Amino acid sequence: MKRKLIIGLAALALAAAAGAAPKASWLAIRAGGVRTLQGGLSNVIQDIWLEGSDVYVATMDGLGVTDDRGATWRTFHAGDGLPSNDVVAVAARGGDIWASCIEVVEDPFGGVYYNGKGMAHYDASTGRWEVIGKSRGLPCDGTNELAWDVLVDGAGVVWVALWDGGIGRSDDDGASWELIKPRDDQGRECRHFYSLAKRGDLIWAAAEVTFPNPFLGDQPGDRPLASNTGVFKSTDNGGSWTFYGPRQQLEGFFPVVCIQHDAGADTAWVGSAPPDPTHGEGRGVYKSEDGGASWTRYSRTEGLGDNTVYALAAYGAWAWAGTLSGVSRTDDAGATWRTAREEAGLPDRYITALAAASEEEVWAGTAVGLAYSLDSGATWRAVDLSPKAGPLDLPTAFAFPNPFSPSRDGFITFRYALAGGGNVSLDIYDFAGRRVKRLVDNEYRGPGERIDERWYGVREERGPAANGVYFFTLELDGEPAARGKFVILE
Fold it and tell me: What CATH number is given for 8-383 in this structure?
């Protein structure tokens, strides 16, 4: 099972790299062997999908596919047919690709909200993209209407976890959609889904049932009067559903689910996180070996890297949890956990996506890069998706953590690379284009692959920067070189 960034937090992270030029179609690449030697994608990873030797990676700046573990990439951006470069979910089967795209918009009061840009479908038989939304019956192309997760099962049926619409199901390549809205243990209809896992006729879905607030509405994050978080299970391919939550001691907010199949039995894993990603922590991971009737919780006490878990994967006897402090792994059903962090080769310990190809091969996405392991997660090899500095000495740059909370994170880092030295200027602007801070003022920086500049969230006039979307620009010897976006979310 794979999972993207943090629901609210991860989808707010904005791409730092600029969009690449349109690439050749999938069919042309397959037929002619054309390859992109540089990724041209963001290192903010939101989702990973594996099919055979192909690895599909959804980033904040486009969609990438590699079949040689990141040596070369086929890339897709808005210029190639995607409705936006911000891809939060991806799935594929037989060359066909499904990608959920969004945009993050700043409101007049300094906050941000999501616009769904639709579900993009790449038809391998024609080499073309089409964008599917409400006109086809799938509410994923409007304000607060988007898809957080997508999967394609063995029969070619597409399943979509909608933020406001339930679970979408299509067995005709997206021509029509059935919207499934299961009811919880108190009979309330659920429309808000975050993650899906499926094996055969068994489906698990992470959800939030909101009780409408007459003053603020009932969208997730709108502070409803109350909410019921948990997971739904179907054993008949979506025909009927059972809800599991607080009554089964399954407590917390759950952005991700996973199915582990080993020795003929299915185990459900659920990752927990704080409802507000800027405050608090989750409760670790829950496991059920009896179809949801009872659950066992594992946390830092049992060796988990962190109690907040936004990604899960399983294969055979192994299960992996992507935490805020690395990838934790177990091969004894959770009795013991071992955690890999940067010293094991991960580009960052903040894990945003996981996918397993075998008991040995597992892929991890982070907020600053991609990595894979060939020894069950003990050691990792990082894959850089951003273009390298070229002959014109143009750097690449990205900002992390993204979103950035000054009180929680302390500072945001702007990282860039220079093939040769030069005088650098780094400026930060708000959404209206006003300069907030000149962080580096025409100062010399020598060549290097990892040059870091820090900002503590203080404006030029010394006041704290407000919540919202910000831009940064990097100039080299007085010429524009790189730009990107980030979000302050206090």
Answer: 2.130.10.10
